[in-house]
Design goal:
291 residues, alpha/beta, TIM Barrel, eight-stranded parallel beta barrel, three-stranded antiparallel β-sheet, 13 strands, globular
Length: 291
């Protein structure tokens, strides 16, 4: 006697209910979805050499940055950036960093490097950023010695309310009259069309100059994707991620000087160490979130 295949209706009837476990105590059929977005994206910025692009890709970077700002020691011409970008495999994003450049120049540059993300790192208004019609991230210049008004000691004692202002000033005292206030929550709202807000230290000129700011004094809740930058290294990026990740929608990190031998010349070993430190932070954060 030959065995007959079950009918379609019988097959439907015999399917286990959604989420039911396998027979004999097996695991659930439903895939496990983490409760927290545990993966921190990584951008290696200021690349100038083929070997550094290759090292970033091999280490697992999600994006690489090319500086289009001529005053920067890491500046490379567009032709050179296009040449380096051609080495990138699928799903590794080239990022073009501009400072107060015209929309015409940005659009022309993007035409040479298709799929690039634009990084506005100067004094561009929200309207300026939208003029190109291209996807972008916006840098926010965070005061090095910023603290919650009115005093640093008060900031240590209590968390600021959402939307409170970041202020430049001298620790333990009132901010000077000419201090610039910085409201990150409002800034994120003003640049809500940006794919992310990049946090960099406010120093003379443009760029963070390898300086860190006080991560613990950022607002407790920012409704935006954030990119932590400014003075990151393999030694401190874990602490930075644990400080900033709970305050935002998702977090990425951006490193340049922290993986360099000299300006514009990267160390493959430091890149590997940096990526490993980020992954260690992800694991630690997920463990903390699961407790």
């Amino acid at each position: 006697m030959t065995n007959r295949a079950p009918t379609l209706s019988a097959s439907r009837d015999s399917l286990p209910p959604e989420g039911a476990g396998l027979a004999r105590g097996g695991p659930s059929l439903r895939p496990s979805v983490p409760r927290h977005n545990a993966r921190t994206r990584i951008k290696i910025c200021g690349l100038t050499r083929e070997e550094d692009v290759d090292a970033a890709v091999a280490a697992g970077a999600d994006a690489v940055g090319f500086v289009m700002y001529e005053a920067s020691p890491r500046y490379i011409p567009l032709e050179r950036a296009a040449e380096l970008a051609r080495r990138l495999p699928p799903f590794v994003t080239p990022v073009l960093l501009f400072v107060n450049a015209s929309a015409t120049k940005i659009i022309a540059s993007h035409a040479r490097i298709q799929g690039a993300l634009i990084q506005f790192h100067g004094d561009e208004s929200a309207e300026n950023c939208l003029q190109t019609g291209l996807p972008f991230i916006r840098a926010a210049r965070i005061p090095l010695n910023g603290f919650w008004a009115p005093t640093l000691s008060a900031a240590r004692d209590t968390l600021p309310p959402e939307g409170a202002q970041f202020a430049l000033g001298r620790p333990g005292g009132e901010s000077p009259a000419d201090s610039a206030r910085f409201d990150l929550v409002k800034y994120a709202q003003d640049y809500s069309k940006a794919q992310a807000i990049l946090l960099d230290a406010h120093v003379e000129g443009y760029g963070g100059g390898g300086k860190t700011f006080n991560w613990s004094l950022l607002p407790p809740s920012v409704n935006a994707h954030l990119v932590l930058s400014g003075g990151l290294t393999p030694a401190n990026v874990l602490a930075g991620i644990l400080q900033v990740r709970p305050r935002c929608t998702t977090l990425a990190v951006d490193v340049s000087s922290g993986v360099e031998i000299s300006k514009g010349i990267k160390s493959a070993e430091k890149i590997i160490q940096f990526v490993a430190a980020v992954r260690a932070a992800d694991e630690q954060f997920e463990n903390l979130a699961g407790t």
